[in-house]
Specification:
Layout (H helix, E strand, L loop, with lengths): L1 E4 L1 H8 L9 H5 L4 E5 H12 L7 H11 L2 E3 L3 H8 L10 H12 L3 E3 L11 E3 L1
Parallel strand pairs: 1-2, 1-4, 2-3, 4-5
Helix pairs in contact: 5-6
C-alpha cells in the first residue's frame, strides 16, 4: 500500500517518538511504499527558521533517503484537489489541507494523528 506521512508523523519517526509506536509497523513494512511530501519539507523548514523546531534540511533529506522514503512533489493536480476539500472553520492549517489533498489525488493512505484529518474524505491511518 502507498502511504503519505503527515509532517508530525515524519518527525516522530526520525526522532523515535513513542507516540508513533502503534502505527510504526505501517512505515517499516517493506511491502508499503512510504511517501513524504515536499509540502512537509516546506512546513518543517518554516518551523525551523522561526525557531519552533530544530532541524536541518540536509539531515532530514539524508534520513528520508536512508529510509527509502519517496518524495512526493506538489503538482497542479494536488492544488486542484485541495479546492474540493470541505471547509471547516476550526481547521485552517494550509499544510494539513494540502497533504490531505495530495493523499486523495494520489489515492494513498494518509498516516496522521491529527484530530481533524478524519473530517476529510481521505483514506486515513492513524
Amino acid at each position: 500500500m502507498s502511504l503519505l506521512l503527515d509532517t508530525h508523523v515524519l518527525l516522530w519517526f526520525v526522532t523515535n517518538d513513542p507516540r508513533l509506536r502503534s502505527r510504526l509497523h505501517h512505515i517499516t513494512d517493506p511491502e508499503n511504499d512510504i511517501f513524504v511530501s515536499t509540502v512537509s519539507l516546506f512546513e518543517i523548514l518554516i518551523k525551523a527558521r522561526t525557531g519552533k523546531l530544530r532541524s536541518t534540511m540536509n539531515e532530514l533529506l539524508a534520513e528520508i533517503d536512508l529510509q527509502g522514503f519517496r518524495l512526493l512533489p506538489l503538482t497542479e493536480r494536488h492544488v486542484v484537489a485541495m479546492e474540493t476539500l470541505p471547509v471547516h472553520a476550526d481547521h485552517k492549517d494550509p499544510f494539513d489541507h494540502q497533504l490531505i489533498a495530495q493523499a486523495i489525488a494520489e489515492d494513498m493512505f494518509f498516516l496522521s494523528f491529527d484530530r481533524h484529518a478524519g473530517r476529510y474524505p481521505v483514506k486515513l491511518l492513524g
